[in-house]
Design goal:
This protein is α+β, with helices and mostly antiparallel strands. Among the domains are: 229 residues, Distorted Sandwich (Beta-galactosidase, Chain A, domain 5), CATH 2.70.98; 116 residues, no CATH class. Helices cover 30% and strands 26% of the residues. The protein is built from 16 helices and 34 strands. An eight-stranded antiparallel beta sheet has the order 7-8-9-10-17-14-13-12, with no helix packed on it. Strands 1, 2, 3, 4, 11, 15 and 16 form a seven-stranded antiparallel beta sheet that branches. Helix 3 packs across helix 16 and helix 7 crosses helix 8. The longest helix is centred in the last third of the chain and has 21 residues. It is elongated and about 80 Å long.
């Protein structure tokens, strides 16, 4: 569950936190960053008739799992985007739900007695902290607690205070430190895997059928809204998100539409059209320029959320510097980082997609000078060796120690896939950026800018033919590697973008050969491999410590976002929208197999293609959703 600020609540069906990022309330104190774990979890127990039952679960450092409350779990489901547990204790059924309101660092736990032959008492034990979301809390807690009848307030020195309050019942202060909670997923990633948490006391309330209780955790200064009002607002929002979908759209597409909304966040202290951004992925990514521009057509434009699209474009246009938008906004609020050769070019595609769906003369007039300035900066040369080569009109990029393409894994000074030279997808994006600018200049009557960009486009189209690898009937991944005359012939998925993007200079037979090569060598049910298994250096499992994982990140790991471009490219060359759509359908099963209702960032290259990386990734959701909607419109009805 997310709150539109960068904060979230996430966990497991069992109730045990298996990641340091699992939390009942992970607040974003400087939206969309400064994510801070405030409440790690709420353990629920019940007293019913003469029986006491623990419904929570925890794993500890020595491997002990206690309690084992999942033995009482009768069912779990996601109801209209709300995670919902039903526990059975004797003849009683207890419903539990967790949700968050929009634009507030607040989380709600709702408990309702669905059935019972007597009243049932619930006991709610919160585990609290105050730590950065990348860290683990260790040692005795230094938090200060203030309490009254139904509320406790938590203070961590001069930091933002927060509160836990129950809408009825009582709070019983009984502070206690709990030691060595184990996060097994962090252990699998080679990281520190234990944490100490603080329990300030217990909330208790008696439940009768039809009268729910809410436990609310909030870092907001205002009193939180009533839980039922928040639920009603969430349901209304979900209806609005699903409204643009075609009649008869399958349930999994509706799930993707709800998931798309989770990545849209406010950037900065205030609401506004130029203060909107997109979180790259949960639980650990903030907003990245490349991810935002790739995801924008799917998370907003395809769902007719045009105000959000325009807002995100305005946000990033404000940060253009040296002809580039930022690749990354650091978590600590430092200056943006401009280490990307493609994010800025993706912005042209996102803008073109938006203007095709909704003519917006005001935004066009506002951003067009920025587009031209970007083109001129790239033509003259900007950061990190990004410059047009006058010899062939292609865009070269990169210098030792940098990672400028989306294949950007790096540890220390080691860049695992540097791709210095003329990368195929960078130049496919360059062609498209020039084509977009030429068309928009013509619309505005800017003949001088149009002629300038057209001359660059003509030269780049001629030069792009150098990417054709006749021996393998596909495209080179990088040409003029490291500024020399060598070309990289390894089969990677970047070439599919040369076919899926609107402006394509390849001949029809070449386009089909690219699609067939990617299908034969790279396609899996959940995306495209980043390197063909037949190539030297292929790594089929994304696992181990940080070094091992980063070295495998783009050496065979499957990327789900590429499934969208592949499906669109397949339709472009074969003309069968229903067949192309079939490549997207396995995601319907995946939506219930990892982070329920969302799409994972990556998968193992080898079967069974286990989901890895961020468990909810913006461009994964976006590219699959918008590609399905695009293909559905092209199926004869």
């Amino acid at each position: 569950m997310t709150n539109g600020l960068g904060g979230y609540a996430c966990g497991t069906i069992s109730g045990a936190n298996t990641r340091r990022y699992h939390a009942f309330l992970m607040a974003s104190l400087a939206p969309p960053v400064a994510r801070t774990l405030l409440v790690a979890k709420i353990d629920v127990s019940v007293d019913y008739l003469d029986r006491h039952a623990e419904l929570g679960a925890n794993e500890f450092g020595d491997g002990t799992i206690t309690p084992e409350g999942f033995v009482h779990l009768q069912s779990f489901m996601v109801l209209d985007g709300i995670p919902t547990w039903i526990f059975a204790v004797g003849d009683a059924l207890l419903l539990q739900q967790i949700f968050m309101p929009a634009r507030a660092n607040t989380a709600y736990l709702r408990l309702e007695l669905l059935r019972g032959s007597a009243p049932l008492r619930v006991n709610l034990r919160p585990f609290v902290a105050y730590r950065d979301y990348h860290c683990q809390a260790r040692g005795a807690s230094m938090l200060e607690i203030e309490a009254d009848a139904r509320e406790c307030r938590v203070h961590a020195g001069g930091a933002t205070p927060y509160r836990l309050v129950v809408n009825r019942g009582a709070f019983h202060q009984a502070p206690m430190n709990y030691w060595n909670f184990r996060h097994r997923e962090e252990a699998a990633r080679g990281l520190d895997a234990t944490e100490d948490l603080y329990n300030p006391g217990i909330f208790s309330a008696d439940l009768a059928a039809g009268s729910p209780v809410f436990l609310i955790a909030s870092a907001e200064p205002a009193q939180p809204l009533a839980g039922e009002l928040v639920l009603a607002a969430i349901h209304a929002q979900h209806l609005q998100l699903a409204a643009p979908l075609p009649p008869g759209a399958p349930a999994w597409i509706r799930e993707l539409a709800l998931a798309a909304d989770q990545f849209i966040v406010r950037r900065g202290p205030a609401e506004g059209p130029a203060n909107t951004s997109i979180i790259a992925g949960y639980p650990w990514f903030a907003d990245w320029g490349r991810d935002a521009m790739i995801a924008l057509p799917g998370v907003a434009t395809a769902l007719k959320r045009y105000d959000i699209t325009a807002g995100v474009l305005r946000t990033y246009a404000r940060f253009v510097d040296g002809g580039m938008i930022p690749n990354r906004f650091p978590d600590g609020g430092e200056k943006p980082e401009y280490n990307t050769a493609d994010a800025t070019l993706w912005m042209f595609h996102a803008l073109d997609d938006y203007l095709s769906a909704k003519p917006d003369p005001q935004l066009l007039n506002e951003l067009f000078p920025t587009l031209v300035a970007i083109i001129r900066a790239h033509q003259a040369g900007t950061r990190s060796g990004i410059c047009v080569d006058a010899a062939d009109g292609l865009l070269r990029s990169g210098e030792p120690g940098t990672q400028l393409t989306w294949m950007d894994a790096k540890q220390g000074t080691t860049a695992f896939t540097p791709r210095i030279g003329k990368a195929v997808e960078i130049n496919a994006l360059w062609l498209n950026a020039l084509d977009v600018t030429v068309r928009l200049a013509g619309r505005l009557g800017a003949s001088s800018d149009m002629n300038f960009c057209q001359s660059l486009l003509t030269r780049a189209k001629d030069g792009f033919g150098r990417f054709w690898n006749g021996q393998r009937s596909c495209l080179f991944d990088v040409i003029d590697v490291d500024g020399g005359e060598q070309n990289d012939p390894r089969i990677r998925p970047n070439q599919i973008l040369a076919v899926s993007l609107p402006c394509c200079t390849l001949q029809r037979a070449q386009m089909r050969a690219v699609v067939d090569t990617c299908a034969r060598e790279l396609l899996t049910s959940y995306g495209l491999r980043s390197l063909a298994p037949s190539e030297p250096g292929y790594v089929g499992r994304y696992e181990g410590d940080a070094w091992q994982r980063d070295s495998a990140y783009h050496m065979g790991t499957v990327w789900s976002w590429l499934l969208g471009p592949f499906a669109r490219a397949h339709y472009r060359v074969y003309g069968d929208a229903r067949l192309a759509m079939s490549f997207l359908n396995p995601i319907a099963q995946h939506l219930h197999g990892a982070c329920i209702g969302s799409v994972s960032e990556i998968f193992d290259g080898d079967a069974p293609h286990t989901a890895r990386g961020c468990f909810a990734q913006a461009w994964s959701v976006a590219e699959i959703l918008r590609s399905w909607l695009y293909l559905e419109r092209n199926i004869p009805h």
